[in-house]
Amino acid sequence: MSDGSVFDISVWFGDLKFKKESDSEPEVDVVFLEKKETDALKDRWLALLDQPRNAGQIQKSVPRLNLAAVAIESGFVNSAAEYHSLLRDVSIAVARSQISASLTDDKKIIQAVETLDDLNETANHLSERLFEWYSYYYPELVFDENFVSTVAETPEKASATKMGAALDSKDSVLLQSFAKDISNLYSQKSALEDYISEKMEAVAPNVSQIAGVVLGARLISMAGGLKNLATMPAGSLQVMGAEKAMMKHLRSRAPSPKHGIIFSHPVLNTAPMRLRGKIARTFASALSLAARTDFYAGKLNPDIEKRMTQKISQIQHNDAHKQKKAQTQKTNGGVSDGKE
């Protein structure tokens, strides 16, 4: 709004300036007309969507503004039918572009890691079923990572045992086919892990360096995207995945959770119980910084991991000193003054 009742407005086919006085029809002056090409009009429309707009206020002030009539009078189109046909084509092009743009790399990571989790669950469940079934014929078989490939390659091995039931040809073919299907699931799992690793190194190199590619991908998935993870407070990131425990803490006197899904990282699950809270806070703080760096800068910053490692080492060093001091006092029969 430039001067009293004089308005400037950008619309999908050009820039307009018009004047409104009392209840009279607005006087429209076309300042700029876009090329009458679908791609150019689509790009203009998308650019307008990204800008702050006061079109609602203008339309309220000038309720009788007819864009189709303006487009015809300016020579942009020759008829209302042409206007609406072009508007339809451009609207479809804009929708397609928005749908395509919504599939970002972090969304691909989310789909891949959730598929990986489903594959893990399915493959493990089917492996247990195969083992239970095949053990009738070969009870000596050990349930390990190689047993599926053993059945897939040599199901007749059961015929060599004296303890199991006899394995006929039909059962052998069926079990072998079942085992090969499970092996294919494990192959697909390996391919997904490689895909996630490649995407994470490109999209979230700092999160990958701190948490590892799979845990980092799960954090992005649980947050709903890298942007959400980057804007999440470190405290929320620390307990992500422990929502039930947090609600129990808020509703009762249950202790607050010290960590959520990040506990799957070795730096936490190998730490003594007494240190997990401090280490979890340090780890979550580094992850939060890593996510922000990935989202806003997109470049690897080795200093994030270096500072985190130094802080965790300091926590462990202080604890070792404290434990040694307590042990010395206990050995000498001394009494701790309670200070850390």
UniProtKB/TrEMBL annotation:
SUPFAM superfamilies: Nop domain (SSF89124). GO terms for cellular component: box C/D methylation guide snoRNP complex. It comes from Methanolapillus africanus. Residues 203-317 form the Nop domain. PROSITE patterns: NOP. This is Nop domain-containing protein. SMART domains: NOSIC. Belongs to the NOP5/NOP56 family. It comes from the Archaea. PANTHER family: NUCLEOLAR PROTEIN 5 NUCLEOLAR PROTEIN NOP5 NOP58 (PTHR10894), NUCLEOLAR PROTEIN 56 (PTHR10894:SF0). GO terms for molecular function: snoRNA binding. InterPro entries: Helix_hairpin_bin_sf, Nop56/Nop58, Nop5_N_sf, Nop_C, Nop_dom, Nop_dom_sf, NOSIC. Residues 313-340 are annotated as: Disordered.
